[in-house]
Design a protein that fits this description.
Blueprint: H1 12-21, E1 26-29, E2 32-35, H2 41-58, E3 63-67, E4 71-74, E5 79-81, E6 85-89, E7 101-102, E8 107-112, H3 117-121, H4 123-128, E9 136-141, E10 146-152, E11 158-164, E12 169-172, E13 177-180, H5 181-184
Length: about 190
């Protein structure tokens, strides 16, 4: 019978020191550090297409788009993660005095991969739901034109919706506009 390797507990201070010195992105999960792997060309195209599609509709307002270079604190879970995209409205709020770690995403977008899909749908989404400002979760499939969303309605219930095919539109309830899936999947080749 195999036994799991015990990894030492890493403090938040040590994590931030390691993250600042690391060439790869490091996530923090209550004392555990997880190195982030690189993505595929399709993953990169989908994230870039989402930035363009969101950016053209957000315009000059008070919302901004952050890429996976920005870290998100999930304070109730003692965790730090790098979503593929975040939309923040009303200005960024930072954890403590760290200008690299936001605490107030409104919309979070994850491009699904085989290695992270279960985590993105499960534990990560559960953790994101503890962020007070968080209202909409978008999951972009890179294998076929399918975009799923979860929206926190006024009754405090997460409502699921799915958009299938390039002719469909993704409606972002928290932002008040729609994006055609043909824009999200522009120039993306499917396996």
């Amino acid at each position: 019978m195999e036994t799991a390797k015990k990894t030492p507990f890493i403090s938040k201070a040590e994590y931030f020191r390691m993250a600042e010195e690391s060439v790869e992105k490091l996530e923090y999960h209550n004392g555990r550090i997880v190195a982030m792997s690189g993505g595929t060309v399709a993953h990169s195209k989908l994230a870039a297409n989402m930035i363009v599609a969101l950016g053209t509709r957000i315009g000059e307002g008070d919302c901004s788009i952050l890429t996976s270079d920005a870290r998100c604190a999930i304070q109730s879970e003692n965790a730090y993660v790098y979503p593929d995209l975040m939309v923040i409205c009303g200005g960024e709020e930072y954890e403590d005095d760290r200008n690299d770690t936001v605490i107030n995403p409104l919309v979070i977008v994850e491009v699904l991969s085989k290695s992270t899909e279960a985590y993105d749908r499960g534990e990560k989404f559960q953790n994101y739901r503890s962020i007070p400002s968080f209202r909409e979760y978008i999951l972009v499939n890179q294998e076929k034109p399918v975009v799923e969303k979860y929206f926190l309605n006024e009754e405090g219930i997460w409502v699921f919706g799915s958009n299938l095919g390039l002719e469909a539109h993704l409606t972002l309830d928290s932002l008040g506009f729609s994006i055609p899936l043909s824009s999200i999947y522009r120039n993306v080749d499917f396996p």
